[in-house]
């Protein structure tokens, strides 16, 4: 049985990735971080929640899922005053198989084994595997969008373009610098932006994203970085969607589909 200090250290190690998962699941830094905070509060009230056998990450995500289910799974307000993205997400969520998105993101984005996905979600391995397959099919279907790729490494840019094109989306351009990103965004007004953090000529993708969001506050942007923990601190404005380098095709497909799922800017194919 781990002592309290070991539990605290385990939580600190895995908390950035719990935030990433929670943000992707809810489509919002605000709501995702609030769910992560609720998970920590539950653990502080009962440290035995982290005493069960298994990897610390599995235990932490299991507690999160208990919190997530208790709060109704959407994690966002859908009352009359809700934002358009939240209303769109609520309507789309009603059409999806329950728990399929969760299983897909746990397996593909967070890289849990299918056995661990089942443990986290309190279901069988067979059911977890079925939910992953259903989640991939449901999220990838029906949302054709125009996507701007902002990436200064040609091979990575080509990979990203091939993956999103295979999903049925249209790549409107590939920017390599901050200034190119702003110019291409203004010209094409894409439904989604894939944004590398460090760009050619030393410019910043994060600054380009900030400039874009000042103009269009509901613009979905997926950040791509080799240092995800720097954008998952929960201490400032940070991205809701993030892909870690090196990435897999499945991670890109799942994250792109999830970001568009929450966006009022994406349209049915």
UniProtKB/TrEMBL annotation:
Domain named Response regulatory: residues: 146-260
InterPro entries: Bact_response_regulator, CheY-like_superfamily, PhyR_sigma2, PhyR_sigma4, RNA_pol_sigma_r3/r4-like, Sig_transdc_resp-reg_receiver
Pfam families: PhyR_sigma-like (PF22233), PhyR_sigma2 (PF22029), Response_reg (PF00072)
Top-level taxonomic group: Bacteria
PTM sites of type 4-aspartylphosphate: 196
Keywords: Phosphoprotein
GO BP terms, alphabetized: phosphorelay signal transduction system
Entries under PROSITE patterns matching the protein: RESPONSE_REGULATORY
Residue intervals passing through the bilayer: none
PANTHER family: RESPONSE REGULATORY DOMAIN-CONTAINING PROTEIN (PTHR44591:SF3), STRESS RESPONSE REGULATOR PROTEIN 1 (PTHR44591)
Listed name of the protein: CheY chemotaxis protein or a CheY-like REC (Receiver) domain
The organism of origin for this protein: Pontivivens marinum
Lineage: Bacteria, Pseudomonadati, Pseudomonadota, Alphaproteobacteria, Rhodobacterales
């Amino acid at each position: 049985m781990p002592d309290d200090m070991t539990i605290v250290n385990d939580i600190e190690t895995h908390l950035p990735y719990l935030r990433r998962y929670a943000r992707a699941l809810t489509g919002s830094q605000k709501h995702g971080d609030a769910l992560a905070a609720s998970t920590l509060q539950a653990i502080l009230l009962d440290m035995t929640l982290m005493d069960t056998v298994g990897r610390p990450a599995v235990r932490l995500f299991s507690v999160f899922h208990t919190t997530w289910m208790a709060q109704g799974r959407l994690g966002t307000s859908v009352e009359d005053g809700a934002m358009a993205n939240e209303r769109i997400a609520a309507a789309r969520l009603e059409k999806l198989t329950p728990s399929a998105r969760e299983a897909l993101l746990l397996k593909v984005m967070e890289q849990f084994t299918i056995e661990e996905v089942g443990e986290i979600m309190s279901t069988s391995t067979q059911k977890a595997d079925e939910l992953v397959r259903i989640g991939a099919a449901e999220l990838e279907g029906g949302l054709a969008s125009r996507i701007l790729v902002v990436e200064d490494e040609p091979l990575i840019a080509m990979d990203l373009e091939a993956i999103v094109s295979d999903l049925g989306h249209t790549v409107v351009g590939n920017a390599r610098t901050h200034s190119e990103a702003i110019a291409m965004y203004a010209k094409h007004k894409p439904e989604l932006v894939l944004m590398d953090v460090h760009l050619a000529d030393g410019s910043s993708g994060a600054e380009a994203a900030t400039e874009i969001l000042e103009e269009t506050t509901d613009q979905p942007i997926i950040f791509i970085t080799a240092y995800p923990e720097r954008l998952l601190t929960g201490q400032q404005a940070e991205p809701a969607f993030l892909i870690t380098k090196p990435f897999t095709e499945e991670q890109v497909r799942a994250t792109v589909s999830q970001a568009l799922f929450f966006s009022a800017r994406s349209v049915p194919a």
